[in-house]
Amino acid sequence: MQANRIYNFNPGPAALPLAVLEEIQGSLLDYKGSGMSVMEMSHRSKEFDAILNDAIARTRRLLQLDERFHVIFVQGGASLQFSMIPMNFLADGRSADYVNTGTWATNAIQEARVLNKTVNVVASSEDRQFTYIPRDIVFNPDAVYVHLTSNNTIRGTQWAAFPDTQGVPIVADMSSDIMSRPFDAGRFGLIYAGAQKNIGPAGVCMVIIRDDLLKRVPANLPSMLKYTTYTSKNSLYNTPPSFAIYTVQLVLKWIEETVGGLGRMEALNRKKAEVVYRGIDGSGGFYRGTAEPASRSLMNLTFRLPSEELEQRFLQAALQAGLGGLKGHRSVGGCRASLYNAVPMEGVEALADFMQTFARKNG
Ligand SMILES: *Cc1c(COP(=O)(O)O)cnc(C)c1O
């Protein structure tokens, strides 16, 4: 049965690969002859163990993680990581550097400060409404880590390359671009990503931690807030969000086996973003990209129309044309096309065509 699906440009929760949804549908009542759904089975069953370990193994292969790295699954979203990171790594007298590139980075800084941790904001793009990624940053050599947001979901900016932190481990919020491109994980101490943007449904956050940072975890933290609880129990200290992890596993399998890895994923994502940015830049000023060109995101493409009234009409007409989720974040307004991994090229082409027609009629 063919469902009536639209092209989904939602920022998160967001589009999932159709093949993944179909696989879930096919095994919903009876997962691999177990006679039950993954939702209904023990998180300590051999079936779930295989799912969890496969998700971890695929993450390791896709990101080329060496044996120093642990892959764990935590609840509480990326937002809980804003607190867990400073709680686990910043002992009294130690500090961390933060780069403020938007709402999520601002929240990460705030959550560390709530805990009375010492945070140095070494660079910020707030002076120009977070429309760019700062350059030539001077980092503190004695910082425990440098925190940055690899892709700024709301403002539509992304680090094209990661800064040289002179050996200080990078801690990165990759919620909205993890698995969208290859990168050298070796310089990272911790990577985290709420699954609901690029690798799965809401309810689980992937966290990748390097061994040397684990040594900093203090004993006097609640078990659920301690990274070592997750690494020592393979994320099975308590009941994990098993169905969400299962979906992540299928998405990673899709990236690895159907797309063909992160190099291929990036090439596709570049092509998709190019089609839409070309449409924006070629519209004679009807559409105006809000991010500085050198800092533009390949994942979240933010743009304005000549008036808010036209933006409203644009969003309505787009939805009628089967293109959903294009409204900008409520804090900034405007429009945003989120072109995550699962958004197919046909959808992107349909969007570019629609944008061109709309500009011609209303420009
Ligand atoms: C969505 C998002 C968050 C918040 O994620 P939650 O899982 O809702 O806590 C944090 N950082 C970035 C970059 C995001 O895109």
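^ pyridoxal-5'-phosphate complex. The pocket of pyridoxal-5'-phosphate is lined by residues 12, 77-79, 104, 149, 153, 173, 175-176, 194, 197 (CB under 6 Å). The CA atoms of residues 178 and 235 lie 20 Å apart.
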